[in-house]
Amino acid sequence: MKKHNYLYFKISLAFLVLLATVSLTYNYISHYVAEEYILEVNQKLYGGIADSTSIVTKPMTDGTIDQAAIMDIMHSMMVINPSVEVYLLDTVGSIVTHVAPNKKVKLTSVNLEPIKKFIQLKEDRPFLKGDDPRNPNTQNIFSAAPILTNGLLQGYVYIILASEEQMAVVSDLRGSYMFKLGKQMAWITLLGAMLLGLLTIWFLTRNLRGIIQTVQRFKEGDYSARITPDNSGDLVVLADTFNGMADQIVENIDQLKSVENLRRELIANVSHDLRTPLAIMQGYIETMQMKNETLTSSEREKYLGTVLNSSHRLSKLITQLFEYSKLEAKQIEPKKEPFYIGELAQDVFAKYQILTQEKNITLSLDMPNQLPMVFADLGLVERVIQNLMDNAIKFTPNNGKITLKISPLNHHVEIKIADTGPGISKEDQIHIFERHRKGAVSSGAGLGLAIAQKILELHNATIRVQSKLNEGTTFMFQLPCHIHA
Questions:
Q1: I need a labelling partner for 396 at 20 to 30 A (CA). Which of 68, 245, 276, 358 fits?
Q2: Domain limits, the chain
Q3: pTM confidence score
């Protein structure tokens, strides 16, 4: 059995169970309705017996039972309907006497409400049941009439129209009839309903089977498989949902492939960056070993200085790589707090003045005396500014100029770092923040710009660049002002 047929057979089995349940319920209801129908017919046919009896005979005179009249009633009832039971009631419903040979009466009184209603609605009597004196807590059909003497109510004639014997015979005959009818019609009805139901289920699940087959194709690697409108039918919502999910999965797969390619390029680039200082260190150490006895003190100091600088460069690159990896994996959460951006700018300016003087670069700080506080992670923002300053110093030639500018702007503070370096072409500007891309100018930028971008993304901020070849470069970003409570 194919997997996509499971649903069809499950629904079919559920339908058969439902059909059997409905059939049993139908038989029960038919049995009940037929019984009620027979009782109602008997009451309609013989409901006037009590009226005739009370008029023709006088079972009670001045509150006294007339035994001769009772025998007349008995004879009349047995002729008309041998199964009836006749009861004489007083004005409060107590049973005075009864005509029910060989029958044990268990009640001493009956409820008069249905009797009064039966008498009152003489012209259009509904289907009513009253107490059955032989069967407590049981209702049965009856006929009733008042017993009047000179216009005074003496009691009631209360006749049960369907005795136990009659109901037993009716039940046996009805059971036999229902058995015969069921025997003849059950198989035809069940088979016909089953065939019709299975065909209906097959038709309704046809679209679903097509969807299941499409999903199976997609599972097996056919990522172009989609549910066409012709196969959707009444399941159009399911079809649209699957198609949207499939498109999203294919897009995610493409993104994963792209990320994997970028990861490989990143590993290759980082390996190259790590190899360079290592090669320098290895080369100078080997030279010192080979020329150990011939090296002068100044040469030895020079070689050791080169090795030390390369080790610092290597350490810095490893630190940046570790930091970038944590940012990429979202393992760093910014701890935002209000602080004065002007004070941070002053600290950075003082620190980098010494570095810029070594390259004869003019460093200037441009900001107003009063600046609002910003709301951000102080340490991470300082890291961004330092990375941008390092990048500017690296590409600014001797006698160049670097400007750190802070200015308020529409509930934000804008930070700009401008240099007079060689500039960046438009083609390279879109890739300078992507560490895996190696542009002609940005190839030596290490991970500084990529780290700066990741940090600003954590602050829901964006870093922008403005640059022209041979005219310098400006990096800028904005931080929100702190709003006082």
A1: 276
A2: 3-36+171-204, 48-160, 337-480
A3: 0.47
Q: State residue 263's pLDDT score.
A: 67
Q: Which residues pair with 413 in a beta bridge?
A: 408, 479
Contact 28, 42 (CB under 8 A): no
Confidence of residue 14 (pLDDT cuts 50, 70, 90): confident
Tell me if residue 189 falls in helix, strand or coil.
Answer: helix
CATH code of the domain made up of 337-480: 3.30.565.10
Closest listed residue to residue 270, CA positions, set 332, 328, 311, 325: 325
pLDDT at 225 over 80: yes
- In angstroms, the Cα distances linking 153 to 60, 145, 193 are 10, 11, 60
Q: What is the DSSP string of 242-293?
A: HHHHHHHHHHHHHHHHHHHHHHHHHHHHHHHHHHHHHHHHHHHHHHHHHTTT
Within this chain, domains 48-160 and 337-480 share the same CATH topology:
no
3-state helix, strand, coil in the chain (%, to 5): 55, 20, 25
Taking a C-beta distance cutoff of 8 angstroms, is the pair 110, 130 a contact? yes
Mean pLDDT of the chain: 78
Q: What confidence category does residue 57 fall into, taking pLDDT thresholds of 50, 70 and 90?
A: low
CB burial of residue 451 (10 Å; 0-12, 13-18, 19+): buried
pLDDT band at residue 59 under the 50/70/90 scheme? low
CB of 27 closer than 8 Å to CB of 182? yes
Neighbours of 160 (CB within 10 A): 26
Report how far residue 159's alpha carbon sits from residue 226's, in angstroms, rounded to the nearest whole number: 77
The residue count of the chain comes to: 485
Cα atoms in the Cβ-side hemisphere of radius 13 Å centred on 149: 13
Q: Which amino acid, residue 307?
A: V
Cβ within 8 Å of residue 60, ≥6 positions away:
66, 69, 88, 96, 147, 149, 154, 155
Who contacts 443 (Cβ-Cβ below 8 Å, separation ≥6)?
Answer: none
Looking at domain 48-160, its CATH architecture is 2-Layer Sandwich (3.30)
